[in-house]
Design goal:
- By secondary structure, the chain is α/β, with parallel strands linked by helices.
- It has one domain: Rossmann fold (3-Layer(aba) Sandwich), CATH 3.40.50.360.
- It has helices at residues 15-29, 56-60, 69-78, 95-111, 132-145, 161-181, and strands spanning 2-7, 33-38, 81-89, 92-93, 118-124, 149-156.
- Strands 1, 2, 3, 4, 5 and 6 form a six-stranded mixed β-sheet that branches.
- β5 (118-124), α5 and β6 (149-156) form a beta-alpha-beta unit.
- It is globular.
- The termini are close together.
- The structure holds flavin mononucleotide (FMN).
Amino acid sequence: MSVMVVWASPNVEGLTAAAKDRIVEGITRAGGTAESLHLCRQKLQSCQACADGWGPCRQEGRCVLEDDFAEIYDRLIAAQGIVFVTPVYWHDVAERLKCLLDRLRRCETGSGRLAGKPCLLVACAGGTGNGAISCLQNMEKVAGHMKMSCMDRLPVIRFNEAYMLPALVGAGEAFAKKIEQQ
Ligand SMILES: Cc1cc2nc3c(=O)[nH]c(=O)nc-3n(C[C@H](O)[C@H](O)[C@H](O)COP(=O)(O)O)c2cc1C
């Protein structure tokens, strides 16, 4: 069983990376295969809202932009589950993940290939942690537009990281086991 762990922080030793590592550990512990995808290393352009606002995304489920998107989309479709791990920027999803989700949502309108796919949402915030919940809500909204099956929404903040990071191992494990049962 394979799970894609998509993460979107430029800091390879930051909180988001630590959260991603714990999730991967949990998936592996459950006997699954976790494939990490670091979005900051991918060539991903922003949606251009081409044509009259809808390009071939609407009817054909594909994007006209030529970058790494099509390959990422294929990998997400092939995975049995997806974990999205983002830093919280401006109370919201980080731009690299937002960019991917914007385009996925459009293509899903035309294809529905991620519909029903289990997902886990993790938001990592610094400082006060303000905005971690709205970030998760925003991700959940997009996952809902794509009719994905959201298993959990987890905030990691400076206050809770000592007990939340270990808990993410359990979350990854439970997620992988749940997928295995389906
Ligand atoms: C542009 C920007 C905006 C941010 N906005 C918020 C925010 O709204 N709320 C918050 O708690 N932290 C915010 N932060 C702090 C990050 O969420 C925090 O540093 C987090 O640990 C980033 O993950 P990283 O450790 O992987 O870099 C922001 C950081 C940046 C760079």
